[in-house]
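Board notes, transcribed. Complex of a protein with magnesium ion.
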Amino acid sequence: MFSSVLIANRGEIACRIARTAKRLGLRTVAVYSSADKDAPHVHACDEAHLIGPAPASESYLSIERILEVAKRTGADCIHPGYGFLSERSEFAQACADAGIVFVGPPPSAIQAMGLKDRAKALMEQAGVPVVPGFHGEMQDPKFLKSKAYEIGYPVLIKAVAGGGGKGMRRVDKHVEFDAALEGATREASRSFGDARVLIEKYVTAPRHVEIQVFADQYGNVIHLGERDCSLQRRHQKVIEEAPAPGMTREIRAAMGKAAVEAARAVGYVGAGTVEFIADGSTGLRPDGFWFMEMNTRLQVEHPVTEMITGIDLVAWQFRIASGEKLPLSQDDVKLDGHAVEARLYAEDPERNFLPAIGPLVALEFPAMDGVRIDAGVVAGGTVTPFYDPMLAKLIAHAPTRDKALDLLHTALTRTRIAGVRSNLAFLAALSVASEFRAGHFDTGFIDRHLAALGAVPQGIDAGAAAAGVTALLAQPAQQCDASPWDATDGFQLGGPREVALPVSVDGERLVAQISYGQDAEIRVEHTLAADDARAFLADGTAYVLRAGRQTVVRIADVAAMGAVDHAGGGAVMAPMHGRVLSVLVATGDVVHKGQRLAVIEAMKMEHTLTAPFDGTVGEIAVEADKQVQDGAVIMTIAPQELNEGKA
Ligand code: ADP
Ligand code: ADP
Ligand code: MG
């Protein structure tokens, strides 16, 4: 076994790897960017080294800097986690060249599976069923369109170099093909520097079922069963479970065999995942699944497999990388009960899952039997725009699927996050959604049930708003900039006093009606049932949690409000820190309410900014490719009536 490891990652996975490494007696070395100085993974390791500024390209993706630290600290091996450098064969090669063990497969296996078209061709040769479609060299748009027609709609266009659901477009009709192809290739070349695509038959009622494989350096390959990851949004997993609902011994044996063959075909070593798509319209079948891709690394959702097998997958990765044999044979692998994982993200389901950044004013997880929390953040920390917005994973294990989902639901309802917005309430709703509970679901489930899952604008929670105002007013006056006691000299002492106080609730300006008497008891109108709300205060802001939702309340600064009204009336601002992809209008253009003005990429997603009202474009403060800060003015729009007045 090794005596030390450098963990080339951050967040929950770096913490999780450190936990096992320490248990195995390894000295742990963390690396971090300047944005992560106080991040939990820095404290989780025996030592930590700064490798560069916040952008991943200059820190967590810098092979040079990471290897420099590894050499300097004498690390025996490097664990890449997932994401970042985990699937870069040149990194695995550079480690080998530096005489440091890469905890992962050989560079050749990463490369063989790195491009989806090559991987599919290889799998076909190895006799593994692949999704029908075209994965050849020819990239002429006309030719690709004719291929799509031959395959038959709906089809899926995929970037051959894709990952994380990017560069992917579903096409339902022949007339929509050209536009979809353009979108997919543009996104692919921007995200992966490779515009090439493949075309696949879009499987009806798709279920994502993947097999965890493990191989040692001596040609032994086994699988640890499947995970069902069909609850997805934008082709990204949200809730994963094992075993897959409807899985039988026979189907598992067939999928397991195909996955093991896939691993053998590329000389695989270590932990890997073979992802299959299954046709869910007829239920799982031994001949109804097709290879999509192989992820040549540890997967985000690996804990569900750990919980039902009792195996520490990271420990196995270390043992195999250090030259040990697989500790179990296929027949020794036993599955016990059911496990389910939910990915907690900093995002706002009510605003189309817009990634969120900001302070973690409060963060509390429950301690419960059968519940595992893998977190990468702590209360008092900040979610920055630089990395993946996943905060933590909650994993529940119980004898049955129903009990595991109940346990997950309880754990979610006992979790508190204040400050940055999260998908907590959405996950709680998802974990009790009746059709999902009945096993009737596919990858389109979430999109079909957004409203029922609360992922639509909900409007203001007046009770929570009132609780927030009450909490803010109850603070000592010096902490509260706009105390109504100062602002209302005219009121008589003695009798009940009434104040109309301007407040901001979730960014909307409202007026709170406040009455308070001699005993300093404060009553805010609308206090209906707000006693189930809990307020966390920070920086003059109340973050009120109620029924899993957060309401953000501030006492408005009246002077500033006027200024915003005036100048901000026509200012289009960046919703978050990001990069301008394109500016779609020019100064002097007449635009209509809702018209697209610019596209910003932030946290791996595109956000379109639209005109707030009819008007004329004034000054444009940005250009394509420029970075913008959260709240920065992108352009101004002069409202229609002002123009008319001038003319
Ligand atoms: P899984 O979530 O099943 O492990 P994914 O391919 O969706 O597999 O990605 C795993 C992690 O790797 C993601 O959570 C993300 O952090 C990172 N990742 C994947 N693709 C990208 C990408 N294109 N850009 C940045 N990070 C990515
Ligand atoms: P990525 O590298 O981004 O993870 P995948 O090929 O694994 O790309 O596909 C991501 C997701 O897209 C899958 O989990 C599945 O939900 C969906 N998907 C992929 N291929 C198909 C297909 N042929 N038919 C239907 N859905 C698909
Ligand atoms: Mg995938």
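Residues 131, 156, 158, 162-165, 200-203, 206, 208, 232, 235, 275, 277, 292-293, 443 surround adenosine-5'-diphosphate (ligand 2) (CB under 6 Å). The two ends are 80 Å apart (CA to CA).
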